[in-house]
């Protein structure tokens, strides 16, 4: 597990392009038949993936966690951006289709990942945060019938935003947040831009009580997103390719514009779960 330390906005002002990418960019996110994990000291989030192709993968506690098992003191959010697969949690198997999600509560010990088709493997994207209480493990779907172990995303949590005229027509789906799927601090969801739109999260904002990670996907091989970050008056950018993630400190803006429309998964960790607790920045104030 790669470990990255926290950073200061004063330091970022002096970063080269190489240093900026080294600190915040996560590349090669999905590696067939591997679990990849990056531990950030920024709110102690773990970002990673499990991509089972020809073999079953097990989520284990790395030495850096000083834990007997991965979720001994943590909670986990998962969204599958690949083919259909399965997550087995302490002997209970969940069928996780394309763009299904899961919340897995603290205390779950044995967690394994498999794919239905090795030629079209599941790509389980992972966000994990420290936890202080146990909340129910649930499968999260956009449509279908709810049950004890299945949560359907509420209509009010499927939010259409922006417009084609402003190049930011998009739909935001909230998977993990209070009132739908309870967690200690983790929030997670997915935003998809409509054809002709390229801007996300505009007007941009910060939220001083939560950091955020973006993972961009559904980009063509030659596509890219210019991801903007830094303080509103000290902005920087990172060129990002398909299925790459970026760590954004709480003091940093986080928005992007792509060479075409795309989707991204956002995950937030911090002390405040109020989704609308944001400090917006006017376009005219960006430097």
UniProtKB/TrEMBL annotation:
Recall the GO molecular function terms of this protein's record: 4-deoxy-L-threo-5-hexosulose-uronate ketol-isomerase activity; zinc ion binding
Question: How the cofactor binds, per note?
Answer: Binds 1 zinc ion per subunit.
**For Zn(2+), which residues are the binding ones?**
205, 207, 212, 254
Q: Per the UniProt record, which EC number(s) apply here?
A: 5.3.1.17
Q: Which domain of life is it from?
A: Bacteria
Known catalytic reactions = 5-dehydro-4-deoxy-D-glucuronate = 3-deoxy-D-glycero-2,5-hexodiulosonate
Task: Tell me the GO BP annotations in alphabetical order.
Answer: D-galacturonate catabolic process; D-glucuronate catabolic process; pectin catabolic process
Q: Which UniProt keywords apply?
A: Isomerase, Metal-binding, Zinc
Q: Is the keyword Cell division assigned to this protein?
A: no
Function, as annotated, reads:
Catalyzes the isomerization of 5-dehydro-4-deoxy-D-glucuronate to 3-deoxy-D-glycero-2,5-hexodiulosonate.
| Classification via HAMAP family | KduI
Put simply, this protein is called 4-deoxy-L-threo-5-hexosulose-uronate ketol-isomerase
Q: What is the lineage of its organism?
A: Bacteria, Bacillati, Bacillota, Clostridia, Lachnospirales
